[in-house]
Design a protein that fits this description.
Oligomer: single chain
Helix content: 55-70%
Strand order of the largest sheet: 1-2
Distance between the termini: 162 Å
Order of helices and strands: HHEEHHHHHHHHHHHHHHH
Structural class: mainly alpha
Radius of gyration: 54 Å
Length: 449
Amino acid sequence: MDAKDILGLPKISLPIPQEKKSRPQKDSQRKPDGISREVYALTGGVAPLMPSVDVNQLKKRHQPENEKITWEWLSFTNSARKDDLKLYHWVRVVNGAPPTGDYSFAKYNKSVDVIKFTDEEYEKHLTDPSWTKEETDELFDLCERFDLRFVVIADRFSSSRSVEELKNRYYSVSRAILIARAPSPADVSSHPLVKEPYNISQEIERKRALSMVLSQTKHQERKDAEVLSEAKKIMESRMAAKAAQDAELAVASNASPERMEKTTALVDTASPSNIQATSGVAPLMSMAENAAAAAASLRAMRVYLRTYALDKMVQAASSSAGLRTIKRVEQFLQELKVNLKPKVPTKAVCAEHLELRKEILTLLNLQKLLQNKEEGSSYRESSYTETPDTPKRGIDQDRTFVPDSVSFGAISTERVGKRDQKRKGPGREAPSSPANSNKRPRKLKATDS
């Protein structure tokens, strides 16, 4: 028995309360300004097709108090028209004074100045067997009327002429008139019609190539792209092979047998007098080697600036020289009033500048070689003119030359004799000489006393 039996309630199990699933909250969109709540509710939150702007957000233009602005329906004339037609439009009038001046859009009326010619000029300079005078007059009238729009002119032209033929006739006639009216051909040489004449064959070929490109299918475009990519790979492989071949040739030329024989001959004939001479030839040889290596490295590059190539070649030419020599070269260029770097680095200017630097380096090396030669010859002359009493270089004077006038008693001579005995060693006798015969009695006299 439970509480339900006591109260007389039916034994029915109560349903288990289920947890309520939380609904995702809708993103609340803020109502834009300038739209009423009812209209925004009808749109369902979708952005309006036309932008709505609140009038209060616009900047109010400051209007002076003494200005009275009205809009009036007034007539106007356009200077671009030749018939004096009067039209009407709304005009902003300030304080009752209408605006004056030409129509504001008349400045955009631009026309082409077509050259006119007379009958005498046509007979002298403009006759052409394929064109009559009437056709030429009609062509120039249409060019003036349609502002050189040759597609429209070809459509309006009476006879069947192509656009290229019309262009060729117009530009050839204008060019001939300009040259005929000028005092000399040099006066109109800078005019575009004279400087760059119209080429009808090139124009026809250009349009034909353009029509071929535009009429290609997708398959033809893919094939053309594949051909171009293959051609690019072939060019790159050829350039790499050429660069490797140039590098091998440079190495082979540097290690040629003749050069090896020359270098061995220079080493074999080296002596104290010509070592300085061979040192002057070495910079010239290394300069050529460095220039060849720099040229090979530049050929390996696909694209480079000419100033960069000039700097590389200058560094290669000056690599064997010291800092003092490079400064002397720059000082030499300044004395010649030549810029250290060309202002207009064309190919010819860079080549001449590099050649000048090489010649200056060669001159400085030759001057150094000449100075070394002169110093060597002066040294040899001074060695031949030495006096007999002058002691020779490399001989110990303390050991072999002891003058009598410098001996201070018997003590000094005794020290000299003992020092000679120590250097000769035990069991060796000194060779008989006048110097030894003179020193020995002095030594005995000293010991006896």
